[in-house]
Amino acid sequence: MHAYTVEPLYVKSSQDVIAADFYRPREIQKPAVILMAHGLAALRHFELVKYAQRFAAAGYAVILFDYRYWGGSTGRPRELVSIKAQLEDWRTMIAHVKARKSIDAKRIVLWGTNLSGGYALTLAAESKAVQAIMVQVPFVDGAESAKLYPLAQMPKALKVSSQDYMGSKVGLAPRTLAVIAEKDLCFLPTADSYQGYRSIVNPDYYWSGEIPARLFFKLIRYRPIQQVRKITVPVLFIAAKQDSLIPIASSRETATNIAPFAEYHEWDMHHFDIYHGEWFEKAISTQLEFLHQYIGVR
Fold first, then answer.
1. Does pLDDT of 11 surpass 90?
2. How far out from the chain centre does Cα 175 lie?
């Protein structure tokens, strides 16, 4: 076990500032670094802190950040999820990590879950600065995930999304859609998503539970699976066999497309199980084994 410090970190991104926490093992001069951000509409302080703590205690530096418009980061409208902007934030943070003298810029690992898992796959396909990635229940194919959305609700969701998008072009206030809801229209309407998402929310931090609806149409068109054949670094990929948000067939196809670089695990769990209890411990153990094999502490 390694002692570590946690320091606030602020990084300029376009006209805004990205807020992050920098976990640094005290006794390691230039540790490898894991760059982390949460999934859809989530804050860094939800469930990722305990991952970061375990990685830091194992001897790896961690930079855990909020996207612009979220948490401690600046930007308006608040709680906007923009795939383009969030990918830009990842690129900004990768550039920042490469320039830091206190870590080993030749050992950068991207870690993602759900939507940020899709980002990690996208970035690994385009960046030469990344040495490995770890993704759990990653968003891999919006077109296939859309097939799991209730067919009767799809037209209304697309209508609200279009109205919000068009309104944003003329300066109107965002039209929002709930991330989760028991009965109403929302982004994640599957049976286990309401309680599952609520289980990762940290009540100590503000979270409205609604985001600008323009994302809905963008999510359907976001397909990391189309880029992953370009990946040539080690990939740890953990999928949930009972996932109601990410079709397991899409996860299997994505992992196949990354071969021989992918270490693929498929566990008999639901989408949100990996943040808790035995599945969390299994995930941490698996991720640390992967890190020790391909990155190492030195």
1. yes
2. 24
